[in-house]
Amino acid sequence: MECANLDECVQNWESIAGEYKTLENVNKEYLAKVEEVSDLQGQCVKQVSHQKYRLNFIAKSLKKLEKEDRQDIVQRLWKDINTRRQQLSDIEQSLPKPNGSYLKIILGNVNVSILNKEDKFRYKDEYEKFKLVLSIIGFFLSLMNLLTKRRALELTFLFLLVWYYCTLTIRESILKVNGSKIKGWWRVHHFISTVASAVLLVWPNSETWFIFRPQFMIFNVLISKYNVLFLLNTRIAEFLILTFINIYRCSSIIPVFIPTRSSVSTKSFGRTS
């Protein structure tokens, strides 16, 4: 909305000048809190490292004392040590973690730790969306390459594969830093796929390529189709579960079955007293 006259402009300026002073105070408080949080994070990291060091020292000593008569005390200590290790692992989920070697090579020492649980979930969701969208694009590109023989289209598809797998390895490394339980073999598979796609990208237009090309494109059509169906099924299942939870959130305790790739976990949602 524009000002009708100069006096109104001056009045609006004086108004936002007062608001800016409030903003400055809030920003100063924010920066102080950020500094305080950074100091607390450093203290927590040191304390966790100290706890781990002491636990390892006690564990080594217990291994030498396993033949002691007081086995009940030894067993109790082992149980307490394992419990404490799990507690420390839970605490570490809320603290910044060092990047792995791969991320250090790609990104340097940039901190990629996500400390907020909602942000972690959102990043994981974006990762799944990325795979779904690129699988759909890959399906149509591989199908077009199967039906036609255009070098530009082939190179576009192969470049997409290199970029896709390279991006996946980076995103999965970030997820791993933030506590994701992505299997090692799954990540290794994507590293190998990145290299293989790069080799195919520079493969010359030779007789061996024309022999290999049809089978390769058929494989990509099938694997892309499977990925799209699997990812769509997963997202539909997540949507139905969230809808179910929202409908019955205020009801008495109910079992909610959440399917995952490897197992089915059960969680209870209900009203707290």
UniProtKB/TrEMBL annotation:
Origin superkingdom: Eukaryota
Transmembrane segments annotated in the record for this chain: 130-147, 153-172, 184-203, 215-232, 239-258
A GO cellular-component term linked to this record: membrane
UniProt keyword list: Membrane, Transmembrane, Transmembrane helix
Membrane topology note: Multi-pass membrane protein
Main location: membrane
Subcellular location: Membrane
Keyword field contains S-adenosyl-L-methionine: no
Pfam family, any one: TMEM120A-B
Family: Belongs to the TMEM120 family.
Protein name per its UniProtKB record: Transmembrane protein 120 homolog
Organism of provenance: Cinara cedri
